[in-house]
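Sequence in, structure out. Go.
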Amino acid sequence: MEVENQQQRWEGYLDWRGRPALRGRHGGMVAASFVLGVEILENLAFLSNASNLVRYLGDYMHFSPSKSANNVTNFMGTAFLLALLGGFLSDAFFTTYNIYLISAVIEFLGLVVLTIQARSPSLKPPECKKGMAETPCEVVSGGKAGILFIGLYLVALGVGGIKGSLPAHGAEQLDETTTQGRKQRSTFFNYFVFCLSSGALIAVTLVVWVEDNKGWEWGFGIATISIFASIPVFLAGSRTYRNKIPCGSPLTTILKVLIGATLNRSPSNAVASMATSPSYPTQPSKGAEEEESGKAVPVPTQTPTNSLDFLNRAVINKPVHKALECTVQQVEEVKVVMKIFPIFACTIMLNCCLAQLSTFSVQQAATMNTKLGSLKVPPASLPIFPVIFMMALAPIYDHFIIPFSRKVTKTEMGISHLQRIGIGLVFSIVAMAAAALVEVKRKRVASNSGLIDSTGQLPITFFWIAFQYLFLGSADLFTLAGLMEFFFTEAPTGMRSLATSLSWASLAMGYYLSSVIVSIVNSFLGTLNHRPWLSGSNLNHYHLERFYWLMCVLTGLNFLHYLFWASRYKYRSTGSAK
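Output:
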């Protein structure tokens, strides 16, 4: 009877009440579906403001276009970077279940602060008309700026925790030991991006329209209600979830192996013989079966692999201190982390391109004719183009492209994670080239119309901007889903939340890199006594096309860098390379 109960349990998982999770009752696509529903509400709350924030900071807080763009990229970069904290806490001390709930409450509080400020004129700088020399606009400062940034960065902290826990929580519901479970996991990540896009669709249409026509207090209010509503939706799935038991700090293991490999000097005789010992994969379940049968079976000594062999000193050499004793499994887990890190680094440049969607691209569109018949489209609603394309492509990719590629390649995956990421990188190169060409056309229209010194609307349709949005949307679809699944499947079990968070950390680094590149370009040109490409209050005076060409060159070089590492990577997880 005891053996039968053991077989019914999910090893290493608990239910929401802390009891052993049971097969058939916990986990599966039903549990993962609650996560997908929550993602719609969560991303609606985040993107409803982030997509239009650059205009809020410019029109109501009176920052310059470049300052507004930098503040937005810093805010979004911080939010995504804090996903690492959410992933770390989920793996080390709490469950993904608890981290999501705590983070949702924090984001809710931040949005309440922003809603109150947007509704109260006394908490904002005085209104003014830009471009009027006799009435210069007062940039937000002092306590008002403090309220703004407290609200924004509470939201960033909450978003980071959610991004670091929610995707991993959904993926953990699916059984990776079966072919069906691995296919379901791939479907989950595809539909996670679909639901992310669904929330974004509502955000960049309905909520942005409300912000531009009814007031920002209503926009922040909708976001506040949305994140609050996500909490009961998430809790509704509590009875179906299986929650992975935290395994302790993965950073401790990484640091111990790295320090051990550096400090451990003298070869240990007890371990030196491992070079001639057979190597066996770790299979805890078989050990349990042998114990149940009452037979003592000797377990052969494991040997570390030859890749990154400098780390093998952590286990082969005699430790200088007992605290630095490492197992072969710990060394191999750190090797996996180090091998996936170059792939992570190669996606930062792509996300630097994506940062333009919510900064300069929105400002470009604001100078163009945004009328669609009798309807005036808010510039911040332009991301609707990539969002709709991503929503249409995600089901097609999952139900048609992947099954077809599986038949053609005779593999379980069809298209590998790294191939998918590579396709996204190519789209980012094309997107930057398209953005540069569109900006050349926009400025030519401004010049020919005699409006180069005007901040008014230009006689050119905003549909031209759609090209860069479509290519960047395609890049995002291929890269984000592929990257999350790649990190989740390749990472050691005790580091999965943290590893999956690298997908969002890559976005963060991309946003920060965008700010750094803008600052470097302006500073470098300033030292040469040239006019900076990206400064001033009139976008028509910017050399934005040069900036986009620079980005195009950098993304091209980055793609070559990616090919170097991807061609040398060897998959370790079940089904990844089959």
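Check: The first strand starts at residue 9 and ends at 14. The first helix runs from residue 2 to 8.
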